[in-house]
Amino acid sequence: MLLSLVVPCYNEEENIEPLYHSIQCAFHSLNMEYEVICVNDGSKDGTMKKLRELYAVDPGHIAIVGFSRNFGKEAALLAGLKHAKGDYVAIIDADLQQNPELVVEMLKILQDSDEYDCVAAYQEERRESRFMRICKKNGYKLMNRICETDFHTGASDFRVMRKIVKDAILDMPEYYRFSKGIFSWVGFPTYYMPYTAGERNAGESKWGFRKLLRYGMEGFFSFSTFPLKIASYIGAVTSAMAILYLIIVVIQKLAFSIDIPGYPTIIVLILFLGGVQLLILGIIGEYLARAYIQGKNRPIYIERESYEIKQQGYTSK
Questions:
Q1: Which CATH number fits domain 3-206+299-316: 3.40.50.1580, 3.30.420.10, 3.90.550.10, 3.30.565.10?
Q2: Which residues contact 106 (CB under 8 A, 6 or more apart)?
Q3: Other C-beta atoms within 10 Å of 294: how many?
Q4: How much of the chain, in percent, has pLDDT values that exceed 70?
């Protein structure tokens, strides 16, 4: 098998069939073995039904993994990578904003050059509101400042990689997965290819501002210990402010005989220090919660059913 295309699907009933035909058009004339692994991430519409229909038509190219519930895109990516059998693995969204013909270009770059192990696509110009563009741009800058891993601005999950890169990603067993950080952390020479995203074929984007914010926070906590270091910085600053305030109070009392109102000062200091302590406890709690969940060793996802390439029927789990 030369190429495996991993397609996470969540409520993509109207996009599955157009995507399949688009992939057919892009790869039909190339005379190569490929598979399309569609991972149904607990969709609430008819996505799974559409996938079964496509499998009945073309079991030689379509493979399906169905989750028992919605586990998130990161889990869907992991499942697709585990099922991928190709020497090269591509990740592409189901909404047709990422043209399958670009996968052919990315694959050719890897085949023609031993210098790179991965080709990642990024958007030079985003078709989003100015607010979202500013948030994403500054978000990448902030992550590169505080994280130990470098992130290429605008790089997406849309990429083609060699099998060695896929195997390295699968060797990372963490429960809280942040794909952009994982892709960067494993290393390997990567060629960043600009592309222009198309219009979504049907439906609405699953990535609103709140979800993107939560996703960004996952990256902060997964690839940086900087939030834990905040306690030391805040403690040092608070101590310095307390000492400075003590000096001011002593000077006012001894040199100018100014009475210092005690009650308001005490209340302000208590509220300030209490807020700082709660902030630090919250940050520590976030890391402890992740260690607690990781320690349970729960599966990242549960497969309800799967359809393998060129096999009649399916296995139900």
A1: 3.90.550.10
A2: 90, 119, 121, 159, 160, 193
A3: 13
A4: 72
Confidence of residue 317 (pLDDT cuts 50, 70, 90): very low
Residues 6+ apart with CB under 8 A from 148: 223, 224, 225
* CB contact at 8 A, 39 and 112: no
Q: Where are the domains of the chain?
A: 3-206+299-316, 226-296
Q: Are 184 and 168 in contact (CB under 8 A)?
A: no
pLDDT (tens digit, 9 = 90+) per residue, 204-253? Answer: 655 555 666 676 667 666 666 677 777 777 777 777 777 777 777 677 66
Convert the pLDDT of each residue in 35-75 to its tens digit.
999 999 988 888 999 999 899 888 888 999 999 998 888 89
Using CA atoms, how far apart are residues 154 and 124, in angstroms rounded to an integer? 8
pLDDT 10s digits, 105-145: 899 999 888 889 999 888 766 665 666 666 666 666 666 66
Burial of 84 (0-12, 13-18, 19+ CB in 10 A): buried
Question: How far is 276 from 271, CA to CA, in rounded Å?
Answer: 9
Beta pairing class for 315-316 and 155-162: unpaired
Integer CA distances (angstroms), 317 to 7, 181, 296, 302, 305, in order: 21, 31, 21, 8, 6
Q: Write the CA distances from 177 to 19, 56, 105, 297, integer angstroms.
A: 26, 33, 28, 14
Residues 6+ apart with CB under 8 A from 284: 228, 231
Q: Please tell me whether residue 28 adopts helix, strand or coil conformation.
A: helix
